[in-house]
Amino acid sequence: MARIVMKFGGTSVADIDRIKSVAQRVKAELDDGNEVAVVVSAMAGVTNQLIDYTRSAARLYDLREYDAIVSSGENVTAGLLAVVLQDLGVSARSWQGWQIPIRTDASHGSARIEAIETTEMSRRLSSGEVAVVAGFQGIEPERQRITTLGRGGSDTSAVALAAALGADRCDIYTDVDGVYTSDPRIVKGARKLNRITYEEMLEMASLGAKVLQTRSVEMAMKHGVRLQVRSSFENLPGTLVVDEEEIVEQAVVSGVTYSRDEAKITLRSVPDRPGIAAGIFGPLAEAAINVDMIVQNISSKEKTTDLTFTVGRAEVERALAVLEKHAESIGYEELASEHNVVKVSVIGVGMRSHAGVAQTMFGALAEKGINIEVITTSEIKVSVLIAEEYLELALRSLHSAYGLDKV
Amino acid sequence: MARIVMKFGGTSVADIDRIKSVAQRVKAELDDGNEVAVVVSAMAGVTNQLIDYTRSAARLYDLREYDAIVSSGENVTAGLLAVVLQDLGVSARSWQGWQIPIRTDASHGSARIEAIETTEMSRRLSSGEVAVVAGFQGIEPERQRITTLGRGGSDTSAVALAAALGADRCDIYTDVDGVYTSDPRIVKGARKLNRITYEEMLEMASLGAKVLQTRSVEMAMKHGVRLQVRSSFENLPGTLVVDEEEIVEQAVVSGVTYSRDEAKITLRSVPDRPGIAAGIFGPLAEAAINVDMIVQNISSKEKTTDLTFTVGRAEVERALAVLEKHAESIGYEELASEHNVVKVSVIGVGMRSHAGVAQTMFGALAEKGINIEVITTSEIKVSVLIAEEYLELALRSLHSAYGLDKV
């Protein structure tokens, strides 16, 4: 017997038929003798509809009201799943965030979970009742207003609930059947990973593999929650996200991933004096523009430097406007931007103990004549920025170079 | 300065543009120096959609889950109206039933309000903040589950809130601009009433004039809440529902109304012995079939009686089945039913002090050759059952006979 938290996203509960399939999956776990709490998202499309309503109600809106509005979608799914489970003869009840309660801070729109009261729920789970929990929401205790956890917050709800309930596993059911070594739509040889470490999953999530919300992985790592990414539609084992120690034969590189949401900005011939980086990135940070990769080179012109960095594509225009506004204080000679770039990364905790991983990457790309524009590295990741037209070729070459192809 | 509760139904908040119009109406009351609480329904169609979901989830469903599901529509409207009001520079916040709280009994699906905690809301109203309250819902205190008040329950929410807040007026905004002496689609001369008594309104509501929920009128009468029925779409005075004493020149008859939802069942030659009525209406009551008008006549056959009564059209088949099942114990000779009948009623508290009201009715109908099948009377109402084909003629004749036509 185990205690399990199951989480189903919007496409998995998109209509009544799918909710009925979900109920069957829940019942199967229960019939295996497990205690089950289920976390559900809103039916696909509902949250976007509610956000659209709010945006057309007012250009600037109170985030407390936004939270009260958008949290309603999850309440509907939770009630419906409880009804379907009862119809299958399963004892079940729905829980809204304030009923549990899931206490959060007061950062409406992107609140952080602070505590979950589980005494009553735990008692009911032990008696065989299924808890159906509305994801994505909580309550801010001081004023008793509803909060939401930000997009993808139901993953975080599930992991936090698993931690609070001392669950043996937290299964995230989604429309993919696990985490792959690369994007299977591009790399034919991509394989599903049976296991992946929290650190690797974190890098993948932050690089745009939209399987899990970054924050939920951080939380799972912190609390040692065993996560599993599984398919809602097929009954297959998925990918377990676990501690490094649980992975016996660790590959050097676990995956090759990419992000198209990149744009490159270059400032040429910036005076090379102390404080110049602060003069550039300070105003960008104030404008809430996220800067990712940064490289600084000696410029062709004496006593000046060239500075290149990347931002999200949607933020290029705003970033350029900020830099133009501060042109005098920064003192660059030329400001250039480029959209047609992508970031390709190889990820693996095995890198820590293996030399030459970056070298393999550079060699494989060079062999195909792919020019590297920017390089950044971390302990378990090497990322390069390349021209977008080479994306597919780069992914396939790297996937082979690290021996990840299906045998 | 007055304290006002305004209630807007589903068609009044059907989309964002209409919610914006509602906000303007609210702001106008505020600008006049009033304190304002607003009760809103779900956007038109939303509650039906949620009920459909629940019904397709399971044939029999837990009413606690039904309540958790269907109450979400009102939460969305309340949040959206608060957002729009804030955008107009009005201080506002939304309240869900459990946040106030509106305490109800545990009769899920048709709960009754027991108490409303208004200390905090009252303080905020005094400070100029508008309270936007999700109608139709409450919380059952023992288990902290959400309850709903039954169809049209937002009217009841509004009246109960007005009573609890000691409001000077409760304005029900709807898609008609008031209560009419008769159906203006049938009777050209129908006039809007400036005032009507609670008792008359109750009779009208229970007779199918779907302007106000019966229960909300009862509650307004009990707590002396001054109700006003007004148009959401035009800025015109509506109809005030008040105590009899507030009406200076009371007409004998205030309105002529009708109900098409009638069917007649006749049992012929039933043995005329004590207990026979119980033998007929007992089984019908057990089957939860509502019986309305009842008449008993001496039959042509000796020592037997003919018994006629009306039920809702949707319940005729069930009622006949029940009566056939009990045919032996009742002992009737013939069982007949008729669908093409309507109930026409004249209503007025003035009847109490005026003789001849029923006589005028019978005379007017006789003059047009309209046969009366069944008659029932109460202190302030005379109802007759007639063939449906005469409905329009009967309404117009009675409207004239009582001098109600527009001058």
Automatic annotation (TrEMBL), chains A, B:
Pfam families per UniProt: AA_kinase, ACT, ACT_9
Q: Name one GO molecular function term.
A: aspartate kinase activity
Q: Which residues form the ACT domain?
A: 265-349
Report keywords, A-Z: Amino-acid biosynthesis, ATP-binding, Kinase, Lysine biosynthesis, Nucleotide-binding, Transferase
Q: EC number(s) per UniProt?
A: 2.7.2.4
> What is the main EC category here?
transferase
Among InterPro entries, the record links this protein to: AceGlu_kinase-like_sf, ACT-like_dom_sf, ACT_Aspartokinase, ACT_dom, AKii-LysC-BS, Asp/Glu/Uridylate_kinase, Asp_kin_monofn, Asp_kinase
Q: In which pathway does it act?
A: Amino-acid biosynthesis; L-methionine biosynthesis via de novo pathway; L-homoserine from L-aspartate: step 1/3; Amino-acid biosynthesis; L-threonine biosynthesis; L-threonine from L-aspartate: step 1/5; Amino-acid biosynthesis; L-lysine biosynthesis via DAP pathway; (S)-tetrahydrodipicolinate from L-aspartate: step 1/4
Q: Which reaction does it catalyse?
A: L-aspartate + ATP = 4-phospho-L-aspartate + ADP
The question of whether Secreted is a record keyword is answered with no
- What Gene3D superfamilies would the database entry show? Acetylglutamate kinase-like, VC0802-like
Q: Which family does it belong to?
A: Belongs to the aspartokinase family.
Its name, as the record gives it, is: Aspartokinase
Q: Which organism is it from?
A: Aquibaculum arenosum
